[in-house]
Amino acid sequence: MTQIEAIRARHSVRRYSPEAIPDESLAALREEIEKVNAEGHLHVQLVTDEPKAFSGPMSYGSFSGVRNYLVMAGKKTGDLDERIGYYGERLVLLAQQLGLNSCWAGISYRKVSGTYALEKGEKIACYIALGYGQTQGVQHKSKDIREISNVSDLTPEWFGSGAEAALLAPTAMNQQKFRIEYIVRKGNSLPYVSIKPGRSIFGYTMMDMGIARLHFEIGTGKENFVWVEDMTHHEDKSAEKQTNNNNTMADNKRITPRYITSLKDGEVFVFGSNKEGMHGGGAARIAYEEFGAEWGVGIGMTGRCYAIPTMDGSIDIIRRHVDDFTAYANAHPELTFLVTPIGCGIAGWKAVQIAPLFAGASSLDNVTLPQEFWDVLNKK
C-alpha cells in the first residue's frame, strides 16, 4: 500500500479489538518514530498494552478497547502543534500501511503515570490511538475543493491532486479549517504554494494544518512546487536582523520573545482569545495549559495572563479591547505585559491590521510587542 492509498483508505476508528499488534509492526513503528523524532525535533513515544489512558471519565468520544497509542510530545515552541500534525500523520499513514487503524485524540484521554517521560521544557500535545479496529471507520462529509483552495481551470492538475489529498486529512471536529493557495511566479521558477490555518473556536487548527500539509505533499509531489515559507525563511531572518539594528521605537528589551515557555515574576502573557474563553489552540492554549488562564474567561486578566478577544467581531471591536488593555497596563506599572501577535494566527488578521491598535501601548515602558508589530508601527 502506497502513502496515497493509505490516505484514501484511512478513517478514524474509536472502537478496537483485543488483537495484539505483531512484533514486526511494532518494530516498524518504532523505527519510524526514531526518524520522526530526529527530523521533527519531537519526543513521540509508543505505549503498548496499556488500557487506562482511553478509559474513565476523561475518555469521552466513544473510545473503547484502546490498548496501544502514541504520546505526541515535544519542546514547547510556537510551531509544536504544526510539527506534531505533520510528523504524527506520517506515523498514522504507516500504521494504515501495516494494516492498523488509528484515531487522533486532542483531549479524549488521560495521562497515565509511568507510561511516558518528558524532558525539561516538553509538553504533550495529543495522543493517537492505534490497533485493530472493530470496523474500518466511515468517510465523513467533506468541503468542496474550492472552499479550501484556489484551484481552477488555470491551476495545474498536480495542485488539484494535492488539494484533494489535503481534504482527506483528519481534522478536529471535521472542521477542515485551512486554506491552500497556488501562487504563480515569473519565468521558469517553480510556483509557490502557501497553506494557512483558518479561524476556529475549537482550536487545533495548527495541528490540522500540519496534517493537511503532509497530505498535500503526498498528493502532489514535492518536486512540483516550493512552500512559501521555505523561500522566505532566510529573507525573514535577514529582515529581522536589519529591523533590530534600525529600530527607532523599540529596543531589544521591548520586543516580545518569539517563543515564551516560562514567565518571570511580574510578567503577564497577553494573548488573543474569544469571548467564550475556549482556549483550545494557538497562544490561548499555551495560556491555558502553562500560565493559568481560566477556561471560560476570555477578556482581561486570567491567571498570569491577559486575554484580548480577536475572534468575535470587527477591528473596531478589537480596538476597544486593546484600549482597555492599554489602560490596565498603564495602571499597573509593577507588571510587564508580553504581547504576543494577537489575532494573527487562528483569528486570521494580519499584523498591519492589528499593530496600529497598539500605538498607545507602545509608549508604555512595561509593554513589549512582537517584532512584526514594531515593524508596522515604525513605518507610520
**How many DSSP H or I helices?**
11
**What would you call the shape?**
globular
CATH class of the largest domain: Alpha Beta
Mean pLDDT: 87
**What is the gyration radius calculated from CA atoms?**
22 Å
Report the sheet-strand fraction.
15-25%
* Uncertain stretches of 5 or more adjacent residues: 230-252
Extended strand count: 12
Description of the structure:
It is a single chain. Helix 1 packs across helix 3. The radius of gyration is 22 Å and the shape is globular. The strands form three sheets. Strands 9-10-8-11-12 form a five-stranded mixed β-sheet, with helices on both faces. It has a four-stranded antiparallel β-sheet with strand order 1-2-4-3, with helices on one face. The chain has eleven helices and twelve strands. The chain has 380 residues and is α/β, with parallel strands linked by helices. The protein folds into three domains: 3-131, 3-Layer(aba) Sandwich (NADH Oxidase), CATH 3.40.109.10; 148-229, NADH Oxidase (3-Layer(aba) Sandwich), CATH 3.40.109; 248-378, Leucine Aminopeptidase, subunit E, domain 1 (3-Layer(aba) Sandwich), CATH 3.40.220.
What descriptors fit this protein?
five-stranded mixed β-sheet, 3 domains, NADH Oxidase, 380 residues, alpha/beta, 12 strands, Leucine Aminopeptidase, subunit E, domain 1, 34% helix
Write the layout of secondary structure elements.
Elements: H1 3-9, H2 23-40, E1 45-47, E2 68-75, H3 80-97, E3 101-105, E4 122-131, H4 145-148, H5 157-167, E5 178-183, E6 192-197, H6 205-220, E7 226-227, H7 228-246, E8 267-273, H8 282-290, E9 300-302, E10 305-309, H9 315-331, E11 336-339, H10 351-354, E12 367-368, H11 371-378
Parallel strand pairs: 6-7, 8-10, 8-11, 11-12
Antiparallel strand pairs: 1-2, 2-4, 3-4, 5-6, 9-10
Helix pairs in contact: 1-3, 2-3, 3-6, 5-6
